[in-house]
Write a structure and sequence with these properties.
The complex is a heterodimer of chains A (about 350) and B (about 325). Chain A has helices spanning about 1-10, 15-20, 20-40, 50-75, 80-95, 100-130, 135-150, 160-170, 170-175, 185-200, 200-220, 220-230, 235-240, 245-270, 280-290, 300-320, 330-345. Helix content of chain A is about 75%, strand content about 0%. In chain A, helix 4 runs parallel beside helix 11 (about 200-220). Chain A has one domain (about 20-175, about 190-345): ABC transporter involved in vitamin B12 uptake, BtuC, CATH 1.10.3470. Chain A has about 350 residues and is mainly α. Chain B has about 325 residues and is mainly α. Chain B has a single domain, classed as ABC transporter involved in vitamin B12 uptake, BtuC, CATH 1.10.3470. Chain B has 14 helices and 2 strands. A two-stranded antiparallel sheet of chain B has the order 1-2. In chain B, helix 2 (about 20-40) runs parallel beside helix 13 and helix 12 (about 260-265) crosses helix 13. Classes of the chains: A mainly alpha (about 350), B mainly alpha (about 325). Chains A and B meet through helix 7, helix 13, helix 15 and helix 17 of A and helix 6, helix 10, helix 12 and helix 14 of B.
């Protein structure tokens, strides 16, 4: 024990960081391994269209996983992630106006995000002030949110502006006006044009969300409290952490992330469907575990979750290019998920005593 | 005189321990539901024919919920319900090939599938110490894959044997569905095991505090494996009956049962944290979930209102059962 501590103190910052986040590191190793396999099976992988479609296919799950992560860090769980995605999708498709004006699109985005965050806030308030178990509370609110989504959109359909879809699902170079680079770009302009031609807009969206929402939250006192609660709620309370505030904000932030997921899904499908989000609830839990966040709370973060979500979405691609019989694809997908998740979550490898594994 | 009696009833209720109080609350809820629905929806709601019909449909959920309740009592959860049920049903239907003569082998194989799945879940949770929620989720995904490979791309139109269909749908003497008898048998056994046997006490002990249970000499892994096997076998049994009910088995037939089964257990007053709850409460929980669904079907509310009502009722029941302790240290 003492030796560990002294090594920790003398170790350079990077290695100390790597050791502390070793489970998250595993998620990235899995991701890079899967990427390597994908590239070896499909040499056209690193072309702009393939990169963009891979990113777009993963992005809703990435945001669903981020939503789940914020709640799981507190030691809770959110079974309403999928329904909040459905709700956002249905709401957006119901209130988009056909004027396609920038102002109306921004208005829709703000309203949808506010409603999604409100849904998360309600989860948090019931869990904290009702002193009920998160798994059951969110099971109940999941049913309620699905109902509201179905009320807003009884049949799939609705109007979503094409320009809104293009803005989120295409490549950066396709969105920017061509005049920006001139007729025949040269030098630095040419470099930026080819760079932007490679970067999907959805990746920019993700980077922006991480930079202006997640990282400030993680570094704030509130973010530290959220981790503290997950480690030991009682100890956090005794050290003066505002447990109620921190928990409620974690659930609200979760709802907000799920809302972004719903908005992205809307851009992808260009229509509304009240059941479209359902699959994301259980997948988000799998992604969180793959990403190295402990279901018991207090550790991990969204970096691993992002890696986990992309890795999970690469599996069908790999099976497709490996020419696995399509009938067997769900089976192999299931086997890979089961093995990865079980290995990531099992506690027999990391604890010293059998008693430590019982909690 | 009447006043004192009322007082003593009330005080008896408030002095009850939480488990028994929850049972009283859940059965009161059934009465409230029936009275409310027969006044405001249709007087037929309280008719024996309607209630018998509802009980018959409830028995499928009831059998699943019995297994889930045992798992939840130990502080775990079984999310592999849908495809355990589905795989057993699909395998059994194709083995039986519509012939009553193949019943024993079909039923045997189906229950064997359930037992094996339960064993895998139990070993993973008890020895590999994977959190049950994650493990059973993964197992569910694998089972789905196996089912898809097994059935092939073509949908299954294989009829179930007549006997199985009768077992799921026939009503004896006009008031006693065979499915309810099967659910009743499962219930009697589960009630006796949980409240009268050493295995039952060990199940509660593991749910209350696994470390203490282990240190007091209970072989906790065995208990865990046992409850998961119970859940797997009961899922397979429900799968057989559901196949009989529909006349055939089909993919995704188990999906509508997972969340209602958990809801029924919780609405029946069992703590999701484990260690506390009575099986008779779970029976009430199943009936509440079923009656609610039946009532909303009669008034033909849009599915939206159905989902919202369902969620609100779960929340109301949770608040009736009382809130958790405040975190102090």
């Amino acid at each position: 024990m003492i030796s560990t501590r002294s090594t920790n103190q003398t170790m350079p910052g990077f290695w100390r960081y790597a050791l502390r986040n070793f489970r998250v590191g595993i998620a990235f190793i899995i991701l890079f391994a899967l990427l390597a396999i994908t590239v070896s099976l499909n040499e056209r992988f690193f072309t702009p269209p393939v990169i963009t479609s891979t990113a777009n296919q993963s992005m809703t799950l990435v945001f669903a996983g981020m939503a789940q992560t914020t709640v799981v860090i507190t030691g809770g769980i959110d079974l309403s992630v999928g329904p909040i995605i459905s709700l956002s999708n249905s709401l957006a498709s119901a209130i988009f106006s056909e004027t396609d004006s920038a102002l109306s699109i921004i208005g829709v985005v703000v309203i949808v995000l506010a409603v999604a965050a409100l849904a998360g806030l309600v989860n948090g308030l019931i869990v904290v002030y009702g002193r009920l178990q998160p798994i059951i509370v969110t099971l109940a609110t999941a049913s309620i949110y699905s109902g509201i989504a179905l009320f807003l959109r009884p049949q799939p359909g609705g109007y979503v502006p094409d320009i809104y879809g293009d803005l989120l699902t295409r490549r950066v170079a396709q969105i920017l006006p061509e005049s920006l680079f001139g007729e025949e770009p040269a030098g630095i302009a040419a470099f930026f044009q080819s760079l932007f031609n490679f970067i999907p807009a959805s990746v920019i969206l993700l980077i922006v969300v991480v930079l202006i929402v997640w990282i400030p939250f993680r570094r704030s006192q509130l973010g530290m409290w959220v981790y503290a609660i997950g480690s030991n709620e009682g100890a956090a309370y005794m050290s003066g952490v505002n447990v109620k505030l921190a928990k409620v904000s974690a659930y609200a932030l979760g709802g907000f992330f799920a809302g972004i997921g719903g908005l992205f899904l809307t851009a992808q499908t260009l229509s509304g469907d009240a059941t479209t989000g359902t699959v994301f609830t259980l997948q988000s839990i799998a992604v969180v575990v793959l990403g190295g966040t402990s279901l018991f709370g207090g550790s991990g973060g969204v970096a691993g979750t992002i890696a986990g979500a992309i890795a999970l979405r690469l599996i069908p691609t790999i099976l497709f290019f490996a020419r696995v019989n399509p009938l067997q694809q769900p089976l192999w997908e299931g086997v890979v998920i089961l093995l990865a998740v079980a290995a990531g979550a099992s506690r027999i490898f990391t604890v010293r005593s059998r008693l430590d594994t019982m909690r | 005189m009447e006043n004192t009696q009322k007082n003593s009833l009330l005080s008896r209720f408030t002095n009850m321990d939480r488990e028994n109080r929850n049972v009283v609350i859940s059965y009161s809820m059934i009465v409230v539901l029936i009275v409310f629905c027969s006044i405001f929806i249709t007087p037929n709601f309280a008719s024996p024919t309607f209630l018998t019909q509802q009980l018959r449909i409830a028995s499928f959920l009831g059998i699943i919920a019995a297994g889930q309740m045992a798992v939840i009592l130990t502080g775990n959860i079984d999310l592999s319900i849908p495809w355990t049920l589905n795989l057993s049903a699909v395998v059994a239907t194709s083995i039986m090939a519509g012939q009553d003569g193949n019943l024993p082998s079909g039923i045997g194989v189906a229950l064997g599938v359930g037992l094996f799945v339960g064993l895998v879940n139990g070993i993973g949770v008890a020895y590999l110490r994977v959190p049950a929620m994650v493990l059973t989720l993964g197992v569910n995904a694998v089972l789905k894959g196996i089912t898809v490979v097994y059935t092939g791309s073509a949908p299954q139109f294989q009829q179930t044997p007549e006997f199985l269909s009768k077992a799921a749908t026939e009503v004896l003497f006009g008031f006693l569905p065979i499915a309810v008898i099967i659910w009743g048998l499962v219930s009697v056994i589960q009630y006796l095991v949980l409240s009268r046997s050493g295995v039952g006490r060990k199940t509660y002990a593991v749910g209350n505090n696994e470390v203490v249970a282990y240190l007091s000499g209970i072989r906790t892994p065995r208990v865990l494996i046992m409850v998961f096997i119970l859940s797997g076998v009961l899922n397979a049994l429900a799968g057989l009956l559901l196949a009989g009910n529909a006349g055939r088995s089909f993919n995704e037939m188990g999906d509508p049962y997972m969340l209602p089964a958990i809801a029924a257990v919780v609405v029946g007053g069992t703590s999701i944290l484990g260690g506390s709850g009575k099986y008779v409460g779970t029976i009430a929980g199943v009936i509440i979930v079923r009656l609610l669904d039946g009532a909303l079907n009669i008034v033909q509310v849009p599915p939206a209102a159905k989902d919202i009502t369902f969620g609100l009722v779960i929340l109301v029941m949770l608040f009736l059962y009382g809130r958790g302790e405040k975190v102090r240290e």
